[in-house]
Amino acid sequence: MEKDLIKVNNLSIKFNTKLGYVSAVDDISFNIKEKEIFALVGESGSGKSTTAYALMNLINARNSIKKGEILFKGKDILKLNEREMTKIRGKEIAMIFQNPLDSLNPIYTAGSQVYEAIALDKVEKREAWNRVINIFKEVRLSDPEQRIKSYPHELSGGMRQRVMIGMMLSRRPELLIADEPTTALDVTIQSQILDIIKELKSKFNTSVLVITHDFGIVAEIADRVGVMYAGKILEIGDVYQIFENPLHPYTQLLMKSLPRITKKEGRLQTIEGSVPNLTDDIKGCRFNNRCPYSLDACKGEDSEMLEIEKGHYVACHLVVKEK
Amino acid sequence: MNDLLEYTIRRLIQGIFVVIVVTAILFIIMQMMPGDPIQLISSPRVSQEKIDELKELWGLDKPILVQYFYWISNLLRGDFGRSITTGQKVIDLLKSRLPYTLMLSGSALLINYIIAIPLGLLAAYKKDTILDKVLVIITVIFRAIPDFWLGILLIIIFSVSLKLLPVSGYSGLESLVLPLLTMTLPYLASILRLTRSEVLEVIREKHVSTAYAKGLKMKVVLIKHILRNALIPVTVMFFLSFPWLIGGSVIVESIFAWPGMGRLLWKAISTQDFPIVQGIIFIIALLTVTCNTAGDILTAFLDPRIRAEMKGERT
Ligand SMILES: Nc1ncnc2c1ncn2[C@@H]1O[C@H](COP(=O)(O)OP(=O)(O)OP(=O)(O)O)[C@@H](O)[C@H]1O
Ligand SMILES: [Mg+2]
């Protein structure tokens, strides 16, 4: 069995806002193994991006409280100082951010921004530019010699995302975090981008954490999945377990509401109700106000993560009761 | 870079066009001024033949457009006429006064930016802390003080009470201190706040996270990806505000009896010495157009998005 590359233990992140503390991530644990693609899936506001930023140690310490640990190859990332973290970012863990349209600095050429990353590894100038061109080829940008001279506004959204992927893989990190890598892109471009991620992942043996709200993307690329809701992970399992035997009602509903882009079949089913206010001190299961099967126990106490079958965990009172 | 050259040329041509328009307006205003130059110097005793002769001599019998071209070609050759009150050549007056005004306004502008940009950056980085609030409040207070009042206050404190600095006039670099303070303090707030808000805006942009994520050191991100972007509008502001500052120097120069153009303008207006007024307005207009053009070209140089827009504008 593959080793864990990253292991998150009881991570909690609270933001101090004018309205009080927002509990964006609440006591979550998961692991990402070497060479696997792990997907975090959940609705908007469930804390996926916050989790990703925490792995990069990019959460502003001034207005937040972090608890728990993020073990990356044994080291706790949350305990590293800025200098040590700088050595890890880009080199060991890299990240593609949610909106590809403004992820690049508008005043520098695409090539020079990738060059800037490569040059951090003390690569000689000519060699570094060769690598930039190679990377542009690897992410299948046509005419790379010209594209390196393009400014971001001269590139389409899909092209910018390719540049981002190339830039972030240019230093061969062990973990690539891709936060909604295809949102805001055209459907046809979406699958091309996913293909590139998959292909380069196998080529460079990178692990990938992909963040999405779309089970379609999960099906397309993930090995394992964590389902996130209102700061909690409700279910974890490998992709077959989750698709064939979704246990948590939220997982089931989210899967049904899956925005099928390929076939147009009537109305999109969305889950009734809305995400609870994260500033409130929530008791019990965070999904209970929207859950069609809510039990008394769900309002009382938080459900524990239980291993139902090997590697398939779920936190749900209903599942416990039925067992 | 070719785009840039093209844009520069286009912008220069536009600049020249603006100068023509501005001078045309100036000319029309001068035409509308009460009093005909001939009447001004003649009396009823002068015969009509003599008046016609004078008119012909000065070209006043020519169509107005021709007169305008005479006038503008004189201005361009530096012939602004003579002062009505003293008879001195206006160009000589300007030549002796302009350097002082440029010295005062130029150094005020530089000092303003040298102080305000780092403070703005600091305020942005310490956003919502006491330091940030204090910086903003102090500079806003300075802005609220009218400059004539500030100037007099400074004279009272440093010249009259402490006797540290000269009251007025120009007697060496120490004379520069008080007028400079008067012209700097009220303007700090706007540049500080511009820098602060631009930096805060850029910090929020996703490409800054990208810069961190690829492994750049904080210092590099700060300089190459935050300041470099945030300072584009600040640089433009630098050029745009220069003519304003020269305009504003009229009051400050009068308070400190600074031997510059501002005070000359002040006196000329009060004695209705039109050739001087006209000369100075022409110079200010020229400076304004030059600075605006320079500002635009520089923005295009610093920001490829602007260059793209310029290209789009043409097609
Ligand atoms: N810097 C911050 N300050 C205050 N609150 C924050 C901050 N960042 C995130 N949050 C809050 O934390 C919660 C989780 O946000 P997050 O961006 O992690 O969700 P997400 O799952 O990525 O959603 P989306 O699909 O919309 O990207 C939200 O309620 C959000 O408002
Ligand atoms: Mg997000």
Main attributes?
heterodimer; A: 323 residues; alpha/beta; Rossmann fold; 2 domains; eight-stranded mixed beta sheet; four-stranded antiparallel beta sheet; 12 helices; 24% strand; globular; B: 315 residues; mainly alpha; MetI-like fold; 80% helix; binds adenosine-5'-triphosphate; binds magnesium ion
Characterization of this structure:
- With 323 residues, chain A is α/β, with parallel strands linked by helices.
- Chain A has two domains: 4-92 and 173-322, Rossmann fold (3-Layer(aba) Sandwich); 100-172, no CATH class.
- Chain A is built from twelve helices and twelve strands.
- Chain A is globular, with a radius of gyration of 20 Å.
- By secondary structure, chain B is mainly α.
- Chain B has two domains: 2-76, no CATH class; 99-259, Orthogonal Bundle (MetI-like fold).
- The longest helix of chain B is centred in the C-terminal third of the chain and has 38 residues, at 218-255.
- The mean pLDDT of chain B is 84.
- The A-B interface holds A 56, 58, 82, 86-91, 94-95, 97-99, 102-107, 113, 116-117, 120, 151, 153-154, 164, 167-168, 171 and B 205-207, 209-218, 225, 228-229, 232, 302-305, 308.
- Magnesium ion is lined by residues 48-49, 98, 179 of chain A.
Produce a short descriptive summary:
Chain A has helices at 48-55, 82-88, 110-119, 125-138, 144-147, 157-169, 187-204, 215-221, 239-244, 249-256, 296-300, 317-322, and strands at 4-17, 20-33, 37-41, 64-72, 75-76, 93-96, 175-179, 207-212, 224-229, 232-238, 306-309, 312-314.
